[in-house]
Specification:
6-stranded parallel β-sheet; Rossmann fold; 3 domains; single chain; alpha/beta; OB fold (Dihydrolipoamide Acetyltransferase, E2P)
């Protein structure tokens, strides 16, 4: 704890992707030396940060709605002689920063995703009511260089290795809010991973907008980085997200078959099954290419499970285009999937395209797709019944006393585990499955029965 006086309450609301979850954790790390501790509610927090996402429709409106609620708490605290600093971070801050400052006087700070290492300085300015309230520079390397050592919360952790995007899908704002692709130096990634493992982390998920586009110094590619990380003693599992089909190299596909620490599941967004729509999205692959990648991955590792993203109702999507999406899902068979209605993002090429699909048609198509995907996910989970899976112990239920864990396929697992310890990987016999989780019991070894 800091010696700067009694602890100050910090509340962080995180929206969107795993990158934002990572960023929120790092903001906490930056602020801990200033005496901040996490609060469960924003009502009486000294500092509230909304870490925003700009991917979905009405993201900005949701931010203003939340600011309105926070303003009431801020005014109440002012009447009690207390202060509340409100900060807007993340991609909405990057895209709408000046407008937020103009429209929402209750907001004290606006900080983009590449500048949150400047929070201590910005908070000091806000207290003095001097200097700029907006920090939205694209300085990824400066940010990572300035961040303190990690303080992981458990045995799993995210590790950001790549930011930004050069793909420019026509529906996506990421290149405009996160900037061009930037890969952290190999040594920096390895150092952070070593710190995490030394502090008890056993599973690391590598993060990036296009994580498999990673290119380190000296020509080190993503597969090279994974191999180096796999050699860290004490690290038992590796995952990564989000990947792009165009960056699935031969070396990376082969590594899925040869590296046991690389988990047998992969999130590989396809977005549509229609070649015409994929071209309009500027996805840089077609359906046949995606099917071939899936086939090669499963040839390298037969037990590999795929998850994906779909966008329904992209401009000028016809019923024939949508049927191609359904057919691709039937052909691949996904263990899990995230599906969304297309929503125009201001400033993106797709927002200006003709043939915007009606909300009614989008909703009807999304329902049909989600019925298919939900059936596939349920079938995949039920197929685990009777199997013995290696499960990483991640916690224990407060009421039931059962252990919580994570399967190789990232499913939540609840099980009776005896003396299994946090961070251990134990064999669990799966006895039941729901749509989103598994249940089982610790497998008893023959020598234990004797």
């Amino acid at each position: 704890m800091s010696d700067r006086g009694p602890p100050k309450q910090l509340f962080i609301e995180t929206y969107g992707c795993q990158m934002n979850v990572y960023d929120s954790e790092r903001m906490r790390d930056v602020l801990t030396p200033l005496g901040y501790v996490l609060a469960d509610r924003p009502d009486d927090a000294d500092l509230v940060i909304l870490n925003t996402c700009h991917i979905r429709e009405k993201a900005t409106e949701k931010v203003y709605s939340e600011i309105g609620r926070l303003r009431a708490h801020k005014q109440r605290r002012a009447g009690e002689g207390k202060t509340m600093t409100i900060a807007i971070a993340g991609c909405v801050a990057q895209a709408e920063g000046e407008e937020i400052i103009r429209r929402a006087p209750a907001v004290d700070l606006v900080v983009g995703p590449q500048a949150y290492h400047k929070l201590p300085e910005l908070i000091a300015r806000a207290a003095r009511k001097t200097g700029e309230r907006l920090a939205a520079d694209f300085t990824a390397q400066e940010k990572f260089d300035a961040l303190p050592a990690r303080a992981p919360d458990g045995v799993t952790a995210f590790l950001s290795i790549q930011e930004g995007c050069d793909k420019f899908c026509t529906f996506c704002v990421v290149p405009y809010t996160r900037g061009a692709e930037f890969s952290r130096p190999v040594a920096d990634v390895l150092d952070e991973a070593l710190v995490l493992v030394d502090r008890g982390v056993r599973e690391i998920t590598l993060l990036g907008q296009n994580v498999n586009a990673y290119h380190g110094e000296g020509g080190a590619g993503f597969a090279d980085l994974l191999q180096r990380l796999a050699r860290i003693r004490g690290l038992t599992r590796l995952r990564y997200t989000t990947s792009h089909p165009a960056e699935m190299t031969d070396e990376l596909i082969a590594l899925h078959g040869s590296e046991p620490k690389l988990m047998p599941c992969l999130h590989l967004p396809v977005q549509s099954g229609s070649d015409r729509v994929l071209k309009a999205m500027n996805r840089k692959h077609d359906g046949a290419y995606y099917r071939d990648i899936a086939k090669r991955l499963r040839a390298a590792r037969p037990n590999l499970a795929l998850s994906t993203d779909f966008i329904v109702g992209f401009p000028d999507e016809t019923e024939e285009d949508f049927e191609a999406t359904l057919q691709l899902a039937r052909d691949i068979v996904f263990a899990a999937a995230y599906s969304f209605k297309y929503s125009p993002r201001p400033g993106t090429p797709a927002a200006a395209m003709r043939g915007q699909v009606s909300e009614a048609v989008k909703s009807e198509r999304l329902t049909r797709l989600q019925v298919l995907l939900g059936a596939q996910q349920g079938a995949f989970n039920r197929a685990q019944i009777g199997l013995t899976l290696p499960v990483l112990v991640t916690g224990q239920g407060r009421k039931t006393g059962q252990k919580r864990g994570r399967s190789p396929y990232s499913q939540a697992v609840h099980f009776d585990a005896g003396g299994a310890q946090l961070g251990e990987t134990v064999d669990v016999r799966i006895m039941a499955a729901s749509q989103n989780s598994l249940a089982g019991a610790l497998e008893v070894q023959e020598e234990e029965r004797a």
